[in-house]
Amino acid sequence: MYGQVSGDPGAVGDRLVGAVVQQPALLVAVAVAAVVALVAGVYLLRRFTAPASERFVAALEDLDETAVLMHPNPDPDAMASAMAVATLAESVDTDATIQYPGQIRRSENRAFEAVLECEFDRIVTDIDLAADEVVLVDHNEPRGFTGADGIEPYAVVDHHPGDGEGRAFTDVRPDHGSCSSILAEYLADGGYGKGGDRPLPSRLATGLLYGIQSDTKSFTRGCTSAEFDAASYLFPAADADRLNRIANPEIDDETLEVKSRAIRRRRVDGPFLVSHVGSIDTRDALSSAADELVRLEGITAAVVTGEENGELHASGRSQDDRVHMGKTLEVAFDGLEDASFGGHSRMGGGRVPLPDGGQTGPPELATDGGSTELHTQLFAAMNGEL
Ligand SMILES: [Mn+2]
Protein backbone atom coordinates (compact mmCIF):
# COMPACT_ATOMS: atom_id res chain seq x y z
CA MET A 1 0.00 0.00 0.00
CA TYR A 2 1.28 3.39 -0.95
CA GLY A 3 -1.00 5.17 1.50
CA GLN A 4 -4.32 5.03 3.22
CA VAL A 5 -7.27 5.89 0.99
CA SER A 6 -9.69 8.01 2.94
CA GLY A 7 -13.25 6.89 2.61
CA ASP A 8 -14.80 4.21 0.43
CA PRO A 9 -14.81 5.18 -3.30
CA GLY A 10 -18.25 3.63 -3.70
CA ALA A 11 -19.62 5.83 -0.97
CA VAL A 12 -18.11 8.97 -2.62
CA GLY A 13 -19.90 8.07 -5.89
CA ASP A 14 -23.17 7.56 -4.04
CA ARG A 15 -22.80 10.96 -2.39
CA LEU A 16 -22.19 12.65 -5.78
CA VAL A 17 -25.22 10.98 -7.37
CA GLY A 18 -27.24 11.93 -4.29
CA ALA A 19 -26.17 15.57 -4.61
CA VAL A 20 -27.12 15.70 -8.28
CA VAL A 21 -30.50 14.09 -7.68
CA GLN A 22 -31.25 16.51 -4.86
CA GLN A 23 -30.40 19.52 -7.05
CA PRO A 24 -32.32 19.47 -10.34
CA ALA A 25 -30.37 22.50 -11.61
CA LEU A 26 -27.14 20.55 -11.34
CA LEU A 27 -28.74 17.61 -13.13
CA VAL A 28 -29.76 19.87 -16.02
CA ALA A 29 -26.27 21.39 -16.15
CA VAL A 30 -24.65 17.97 -16.33
CA ALA A 31 -27.07 16.86 -19.04
CA VAL A 32 -26.48 20.04 -21.07
CA ALA A 33 -22.71 19.65 -20.72
CA ALA A 34 -22.94 16.05 -21.96
CA VAL A 35 -25.03 17.05 -24.99
CA VAL A 36 -22.68 19.96 -25.83
CA ALA A 37 -19.65 17.65 -25.60
CA LEU A 38 -21.36 15.11 -27.85
CA VAL A 39 -22.36 17.69 -30.46
CA ALA A 40 -18.88 19.26 -30.43
CA GLY A 41 -17.31 15.84 -30.75
CA VAL A 42 -19.49 14.89 -33.71
CA TYR A 43 -18.86 18.31 -35.29
CA LEU A 44 -15.08 18.00 -34.93
CA LEU A 45 -15.15 14.43 -36.19
CA ARG A 46 -17.13 15.51 -39.27
CA ARG A 47 -14.96 18.55 -39.77
CA PHE A 48 -11.87 16.38 -40.12
CA THR A 49 -13.29 13.21 -41.61
CA ALA A 50 -16.09 14.48 -43.90
CA PRO A 51 -15.32 14.30 -47.61
CA ALA A 52 -13.51 17.31 -49.10
CA SER A 53 -16.65 18.35 -50.98
CA GLU A 54 -18.67 18.58 -47.78
CA ARG A 55 -15.97 20.50 -45.94
CA PHE A 56 -15.61 22.87 -48.90
CA VAL A 57 -19.33 23.64 -49.08
CA ALA A 58 -19.44 24.07 -45.27
CA ALA A 59 -16.57 26.58 -45.54
CA LEU A 60 -18.43 28.46 -48.29
CA GLU A 61 -21.59 28.50 -46.19
CA ASP A 62 -19.79 30.48 -43.49
CA LEU A 63 -19.42 33.39 -45.94
CA ASP A 64 -21.91 35.98 -47.21
CA GLU A 65 -19.87 36.62 -50.33
CA THR A 66 -16.67 35.48 -51.97
CA ALA A 67 -14.38 36.30 -54.88
CA VAL A 68 -13.56 33.17 -56.91
CA LEU A 69 -10.17 33.97 -58.36
CA MET A 70 -8.67 32.36 -61.47
CA HIS A 71 -4.98 32.57 -62.41
CA PRO A 72 -3.73 35.21 -64.86
CA ASN A 73 -4.90 34.64 -68.47
CA PRO A 74 -7.29 31.90 -67.34
CA ASP A 75 -7.66 28.74 -69.41
CA PRO A 76 -10.75 26.53 -69.77
CA ASP A 77 -9.80 24.40 -66.72
CA ALA A 78 -9.63 27.50 -64.50
CA MET A 79 -12.82 29.00 -65.95
CA ALA A 80 -14.85 25.79 -65.55
CA SER A 81 -13.54 25.24 -62.01
CA ALA A 82 -14.52 28.79 -61.05
CA MET A 83 -18.01 28.26 -62.48
CA ALA A 84 -18.38 25.10 -60.37
CA VAL A 85 -17.27 26.91 -57.20
CA ALA A 86 -19.82 29.67 -57.92
CA THR A 87 -22.58 27.05 -58.31
CA LEU A 88 -21.64 25.38 -55.01
CA ALA A 89 -21.44 28.79 -53.26
CA GLU A 90 -24.85 29.84 -54.52
CA SER A 91 -26.36 26.57 -53.28
CA VAL A 92 -25.63 27.78 -49.74
CA ASP A 93 -26.67 31.39 -50.44
CA THR A 94 -23.14 32.73 -50.69
CA ASP A 95 -22.71 35.37 -53.40
CA ALA A 96 -19.82 34.49 -55.71
CA THR A 97 -18.07 36.75 -58.22
CA ILE A 98 -15.65 35.09 -60.64
CA GLN A 99 -12.56 37.24 -61.25
CA TYR A 100 -9.21 37.05 -63.06
CA PRO A 101 -6.07 39.08 -63.63
CA GLY A 102 -4.46 39.33 -67.06
CA GLN A 103 -6.44 38.76 -70.22
CA ILE A 104 -8.57 36.16 -71.94
CA ARG A 105 -6.89 36.26 -75.33
CA ARG A 106 -6.02 32.84 -76.70
CA SER A 107 -8.64 31.76 -79.19
CA GLU A 108 -9.52 28.59 -77.25
CA ASN A 109 -10.09 30.65 -74.08
CA ARG A 110 -12.12 33.28 -75.92
CA ALA A 111 -14.22 30.55 -77.55
CA PHE A 112 -14.91 28.98 -74.15
CA GLU A 113 -15.99 32.34 -72.73
CA ALA A 114 -18.20 33.20 -75.70
CA VAL A 115 -19.82 29.80 -76.34
CA LEU A 116 -20.67 29.25 -72.66
CA GLU A 117 -21.79 32.88 -72.25
CA CYS A 118 -19.55 33.53 -69.28
CA GLU A 119 -19.25 36.81 -67.46
CA PHE A 120 -15.95 37.05 -65.70
CA ASP A 121 -14.71 40.17 -64.01
CA ARG A 122 -11.17 41.39 -64.73
CA ILE A 123 -9.04 42.77 -61.88
CA VAL A 124 -5.87 44.84 -61.92
CA THR A 125 -5.24 45.32 -58.20
CA ASP A 126 -6.40 43.74 -54.94
CA ILE A 127 -8.78 46.70 -54.52
CA ASP A 128 -10.82 45.30 -57.42
CA LEU A 129 -11.53 42.04 -55.56
CA ALA A 130 -15.30 41.64 -55.14
CA ALA A 131 -15.04 40.26 -51.59
CA ASP A 132 -12.59 40.04 -48.69
CA GLU A 133 -12.58 36.26 -48.78
CA VAL A 134 -10.93 34.76 -51.85
CA VAL A 135 -11.25 31.22 -53.19
CA LEU A 136 -8.41 30.24 -55.55
CA VAL A 137 -8.99 27.73 -58.31
CA ASP A 138 -6.41 26.06 -60.58
CA HIS A 139 -3.51 27.78 -58.78
CA ASN A 140 -2.55 27.87 -55.12
CA GLU A 141 -0.84 31.23 -54.68
CA PRO A 142 -2.37 34.52 -55.84
CA ARG A 143 -0.36 36.18 -58.61
CA GLY A 144 -0.54 38.52 -61.56
CA PHE A 145 -2.12 41.62 -59.96
CA THR A 146 -0.98 44.45 -57.72
CA GLY A 147 -1.28 43.42 -54.08
CA ALA A 148 -1.40 39.68 -54.85
CA ASP A 149 1.36 39.08 -52.28
CA GLY A 150 -0.80 40.40 -49.45
CA ILE A 151 -3.77 38.11 -50.14
CA GLU A 152 -4.33 35.19 -47.77
CA PRO A 153 -6.80 32.96 -49.59
CA TYR A 154 -9.81 31.64 -47.70
CA ALA A 155 -9.89 28.41 -49.68
CA VAL A 156 -7.76 26.73 -52.36
CA VAL A 157 -8.75 24.02 -54.86
CA ASP A 158 -5.96 23.12 -57.28
CA HIS A 159 -4.00 20.40 -59.04
CA HIS A 160 -0.61 22.14 -59.35
CA PRO A 161 2.29 21.43 -57.03
CA GLY A 162 2.95 24.23 -54.55
CA ASP A 163 2.72 25.29 -50.92
CA GLY A 164 -0.23 27.65 -51.21
CA GLU A 165 -2.97 27.06 -48.64
CA GLY A 166 -6.37 28.43 -47.77
CA ARG A 167 -7.12 29.56 -44.20
CA ALA A 168 -10.38 27.62 -44.02
CA PHE A 169 -9.95 24.94 -46.68
CA THR A 170 -7.24 23.45 -48.90
CA ASP A 171 -7.53 20.69 -51.48
CA VAL A 172 -4.47 20.51 -53.72
CA ARG A 173 -4.05 17.27 -55.68
CA PRO A 174 -0.96 17.41 -57.90
CA ASP A 175 -1.66 13.86 -59.07
CA HIS A 176 -4.80 15.07 -60.88
CA GLY A 177 -4.71 16.05 -64.55
CA SER A 178 -7.13 18.92 -64.07
CA CYS A 179 -8.85 21.05 -61.46
CA SER A 180 -12.19 20.45 -63.20
CA SER A 181 -12.09 16.76 -62.24
CA ILE A 182 -11.81 17.72 -58.54
CA LEU A 183 -14.78 20.06 -58.83
CA ALA A 184 -16.76 17.40 -60.74
CA GLU A 185 -16.23 15.11 -57.74
CA TYR A 186 -17.57 17.85 -55.41
CA LEU A 187 -20.68 18.27 -57.58
CA ALA A 188 -21.31 14.51 -57.72
CA ASP A 189 -20.94 14.32 -53.91
CA GLY A 190 -23.31 17.28 -53.61
CA GLY A 191 -26.07 15.39 -55.42
CA TYR A 192 -25.88 17.22 -58.74
CA GLY A 193 -26.76 15.36 -61.92
CA LYS A 194 -26.77 11.60 -62.48
CA GLY A 195 -28.47 9.85 -59.57
CA GLY A 196 -28.68 13.01 -57.48
CA ASP A 197 -31.53 15.29 -56.53
CA ARG A 198 -30.19 18.49 -58.08
CA PRO A 199 -29.87 19.22 -61.79
CA LEU A 200 -26.35 19.56 -63.18
CA PRO A 201 -26.56 22.61 -65.47
CA SER A 202 -25.57 21.74 -69.04
CA ARG A 203 -23.38 24.85 -69.33
CA LEU A 204 -21.40 23.79 -66.26
CA ALA A 205 -21.08 20.14 -67.32
CA THR A 206 -19.91 21.24 -70.78
CA GLY A 207 -17.37 23.64 -69.30
CA LEU A 208 -15.93 21.09 -66.88
CA LEU A 209 -15.73 18.39 -69.54
CA TYR A 210 -13.92 20.79 -71.84
CA GLY A 211 -11.66 21.91 -68.96
CA ILE A 212 -10.57 18.30 -68.45
CA GLN A 213 -10.11 17.72 -72.19
CA SER A 214 -8.07 20.87 -72.58
CA ASP A 215 -5.77 20.36 -69.56
CA THR A 216 -5.08 16.73 -70.47
CA LYS A 217 -4.69 17.33 -74.21
CA SER A 218 -7.76 15.18 -74.81
CA PHE A 219 -6.92 12.59 -72.14
CA THR A 220 -3.36 11.99 -73.30
CA ARG A 221 -1.27 14.12 -70.91
CA GLY A 222 -1.08 13.86 -67.10
CA CYS A 223 -4.39 12.06 -67.14
CA THR A 224 -5.55 9.79 -64.28
CA SER A 225 -8.62 7.64 -63.74
CA ALA A 226 -10.11 10.65 -61.89
CA GLU A 227 -10.39 12.48 -65.22
CA PHE A 228 -12.13 9.52 -66.88
CA ASP A 229 -14.49 9.11 -63.89
CA ALA A 230 -15.31 12.82 -63.99
CA ALA A 231 -15.84 12.74 -67.75
CA SER A 232 -18.27 9.85 -67.53
CA TYR A 233 -20.17 11.69 -64.78
CA LEU A 234 -20.29 14.96 -66.76
CA PHE A 235 -20.94 13.56 -70.24
CA PRO A 236 -24.74 12.95 -70.00
CA ALA A 237 -25.33 16.60 -69.04
CA ALA A 238 -22.86 18.11 -71.51
CA ASP A 239 -23.85 19.80 -74.77
CA ALA A 240 -22.02 18.15 -77.69
CA ASP A 241 -22.67 21.04 -80.05
CA ARG A 242 -21.18 23.62 -77.69
CA LEU A 243 -18.20 21.34 -76.98
CA ASN A 244 -17.51 21.20 -80.68
CA ARG A 245 -17.79 24.97 -81.05
CA ILE A 246 -15.26 25.54 -78.24
CA ALA A 247 -12.86 22.89 -79.52
CA ASN A 248 -12.97 24.09 -83.12
CA PRO A 249 -13.37 27.86 -83.05
CA GLU A 250 -13.43 29.83 -86.27
CA ILE A 251 -10.00 31.07 -87.23
CA ASP A 252 -9.76 34.80 -87.76
CA ASP A 253 -8.17 36.24 -90.86
CA GLU A 254 -5.09 37.58 -89.05
CA THR A 255 -4.27 34.22 -87.48
CA LEU A 256 -4.57 32.41 -90.79
CA GLU A 257 -2.47 35.07 -92.53
CA VAL A 258 0.28 34.93 -89.88
CA LYS A 259 0.27 31.12 -90.00
CA SER A 260 0.67 31.19 -93.76
CA ARG A 261 3.57 33.66 -93.54
CA ALA A 262 5.18 31.58 -90.78
CA ILE A 263 4.98 28.49 -92.97
CA ARG A 264 6.38 30.24 -96.05
CA ARG A 265 9.23 31.99 -94.24
CA ARG A 266 10.34 29.05 -92.11
CA ARG A 267 14.04 28.22 -91.80
CA VAL A 268 15.02 24.74 -90.67
CA ASP A 269 18.25 23.61 -89.03
CA GLY A 270 18.14 19.89 -88.26
CA PRO A 271 15.15 19.29 -85.97
CA PHE A 272 14.73 23.02 -85.21
CA LEU A 273 12.61 25.61 -86.96
CA VAL A 274 12.45 29.40 -86.75
CA SER A 275 10.27 31.79 -88.68
CA HIS A 276 9.93 35.56 -88.65
CA VAL A 277 6.53 36.77 -89.80
CA GLY A 278 7.16 40.55 -89.78
CA SER A 279 4.41 42.81 -88.53
CA ILE A 280 1.45 41.38 -86.60
CA ASP A 281 -1.75 42.77 -85.06
CA THR A 282 -2.12 40.25 -82.29
CA ARG A 283 0.47 38.17 -80.51
CA ASP A 284 -1.89 35.19 -80.22
CA ALA A 285 -1.36 34.58 -83.91
CA LEU A 286 2.31 33.86 -83.09
CA SER A 287 1.50 31.13 -80.59
CA SER A 288 -1.02 29.57 -82.99
CA ALA A 289 1.67 29.56 -85.68
CA ALA A 290 4.22 28.02 -83.28
CA ASP A 291 1.68 25.34 -82.26
CA GLU A 292 1.22 24.49 -85.93
CA LEU A 293 4.87 24.50 -86.98
CA VAL A 294 6.18 22.33 -84.15
CA ARG A 295 3.96 19.57 -85.54
CA LEU A 296 5.84 19.52 -88.84
CA GLU A 297 7.37 16.11 -89.43
CA GLY A 298 10.98 15.94 -88.24
CA ILE A 299 10.69 19.16 -86.20
CA THR A 300 11.01 19.01 -82.41
CA ALA A 301 11.21 22.71 -81.52
CA ALA A 302 9.94 25.86 -83.24
CA VAL A 303 10.14 29.60 -82.57
CA VAL A 304 8.01 32.18 -84.38
CA THR A 305 8.79 35.89 -84.10
CA GLY A 306 6.89 38.99 -85.16
CA GLU A 307 6.76 42.74 -84.61
CA GLU A 308 4.04 44.74 -82.92
CA ASN A 309 4.10 48.31 -81.56
CA GLY A 310 7.87 48.69 -81.87
CA GLU A 311 8.57 45.42 -80.04
CA LEU A 312 9.81 42.06 -81.19
CA HIS A 313 7.67 39.20 -79.86
CA ALA A 314 8.57 35.53 -79.85
CA SER A 315 6.61 32.39 -79.16
CA GLY A 316 8.27 28.98 -78.94
CA ARG A 317 7.25 25.36 -78.59
CA SER A 318 9.42 22.35 -77.81
CA GLN A 319 8.77 18.62 -77.80
CA ASP A 320 12.48 18.03 -77.44
CA ASP A 321 13.87 17.11 -74.02
CA ARG A 322 17.13 18.85 -74.94
CA VAL A 323 15.41 22.18 -75.55
CA HIS A 324 13.91 23.94 -72.54
CA MET A 325 11.98 26.57 -74.50
CA GLY A 326 11.69 29.17 -71.72
CA LYS A 327 15.43 29.07 -71.05
CA THR A 328 16.26 28.92 -74.76
CA LEU A 329 14.45 32.19 -75.42
CA GLU A 330 15.99 33.81 -72.34
CA VAL A 331 19.46 32.85 -73.54
CA ALA A 332 18.84 33.82 -77.18
CA PHE A 333 17.86 37.38 -76.26
CA ASP A 334 20.13 37.71 -73.25
CA GLY A 335 22.03 40.98 -73.25
CA LEU A 336 19.44 42.97 -75.14
CA GLU A 337 18.11 45.87 -73.15
CA ASP A 338 14.70 45.37 -71.48
CA ALA A 339 14.36 41.88 -72.94
CA SER A 340 11.70 39.88 -71.13
CA PHE A 341 11.52 36.22 -72.12
CA GLY A 342 10.67 33.07 -70.18
CA GLY A 343 8.41 30.08 -69.89
CA HIS A 344 8.63 26.41 -69.13
CA SER A 345 10.23 23.49 -70.90
CA ARG A 346 7.59 22.99 -73.59
CA MET A 347 6.42 26.54 -74.10
CA GLY A 348 8.03 29.96 -73.95
CA GLY A 349 7.59 33.51 -75.11
CA GLY A 350 8.36 37.15 -74.48
CA ARG A 351 9.26 40.47 -75.97
CA VAL A 352 12.04 42.98 -76.44
CA PRO A 353 11.72 46.62 -77.49
CA LEU A 354 13.10 47.25 -80.98
CA PRO A 355 15.53 50.19 -81.08
CA ASP A 356 13.81 53.42 -82.16
CA GLY A 357 10.51 51.57 -82.20
CA GLY A 358 11.79 49.30 -84.93
CA GLN A 359 13.20 51.99 -87.23
CA THR A 360 16.82 50.92 -86.81
CA GLY A 361 18.25 47.93 -85.09
CA PRO A 362 21.30 46.08 -83.93
CA PRO A 363 22.26 43.28 -86.31
CA GLU A 364 20.97 40.57 -83.96
CA LEU A 365 17.48 42.01 -84.33
CA ALA A 366 17.70 42.70 -88.06
CA THR A 367 14.38 41.20 -88.91
CA ASP A 368 13.96 42.39 -92.48
CA GLY A 369 14.63 40.23 -95.46
CA GLY A 370 16.31 37.03 -94.42
CA SER A 371 16.41 37.87 -90.67
CA THR A 372 19.73 36.10 -90.73
CA GLU A 373 21.12 37.36 -87.43
CA LEU A 374 17.96 36.68 -85.50
CA HIS A 375 17.73 33.19 -86.96
CA THR A 376 21.37 32.42 -86.23
CA GLN A 377 20.92 33.51 -82.64
CA LEU A 378 17.81 31.39 -82.11
CA PHE A 379 19.31 28.31 -83.75
CA ALA A 380 22.44 28.67 -81.61
CA ALA A 381 20.30 28.85 -78.46
CA MET A 382 18.28 25.78 -79.45
CA ASN A 383 21.48 23.88 -80.24
CA GLY A 384 22.81 24.78 -76.79
CA GLU A 385 25.69 26.78 -78.25
CA LEU A 386 25.09 29.97 -76.25
MN1 LIG B 1 -5.49 23.23 -64.73
List strands and helices in order, with pairings.
Layout: H1 9-22, H2 24-49, H3 52-61, E1 65-69, H4 76-91, E2 95-100, H5 107-115, E3 121-122, E4 134-137, E5 155-158, E6 169-172, H6 180-189, H7 202-215, H8 225-234, H9 240-247, H10 253-264, E7 267-269, E8 272-279, H11 284-293, E9 301-308, E10 311-318, H12 325-332, E11 340-343, E12 347-353, H13 372-382
Parallel strand pairs: 1-2, 1-4, 2-3, 4-5, 5-6, 8-9
Antiparallel strand pairs: 7-8, 9-10, 10-12, 11-12
The structure holds manganese (II) ion.
> What's the CATH architecture name of the largest domain?
Alpha-Beta Complex
Number of helices: 13
Q: Which stretches are poorly predicted, pLDDT < 50 over at least 5 residues?
A: 1-7
Q: Write down the Rg.
A: 29 Å
Largest sheet: 6 strands, parallel
Identify the CATH homologous superfamily of the largest domain: inorganic pyrophosphatase (n-terminal core)
CATH topology of the largest domain: inorganic pyrophosphatase (n-terminal core)
Bound molecules: manganese (II) ion
- Fraction of residues in helices? 40-55%
What would you note in describing this structure?
There is one protein chain. With 386 residues, the chain is of the alpha/beta class. The chain folds into two domains: 54-247, inorganic pyrophosphatase (n-terminal core), CATH 3.90.1640.10; 253-382, Diaminopimelate Epimerase, Chain A, domain 1, CATH 3.10.310.30. Helices cover 41% and strands 16% of the residues. It has 13 helices and twelve strands. It has helices at 9-22, 24-49, 52-61, 76-91, 107-115, 180-189, 202-215, 225-234, 240-247, 253-264, 284-293, 325-332, 372-382; strands spanning 65-69, 95-100, 121-122, 134-137, 155-158, 169-172, 267-269, 272-279, 301-308, 311-318, 340-343, 347-353. The chain has a six-stranded parallel beta sheet, covered by helices on one side. A hairpin with a 3-residue loop joins strand 11 (340-343) and strand 12. Helix 1 crosses helix 2, helix 6 crosses helix 8 (225-234) and helix 7 packs antiparallel against helix 8. The longest helix is centred in the first third of the chain and has 26 residues, at 24-49. The protein is elongated, with a radius of gyration of 29 Å. The model is unreliable at 1-7 (pLDDT under 50). Residues 77, 138, 159, 178-179, 215 line the site of manganese (II) ion. Residues 77, 138, 159, 178-179, 215 line the site of manganese (II) ion (MN).
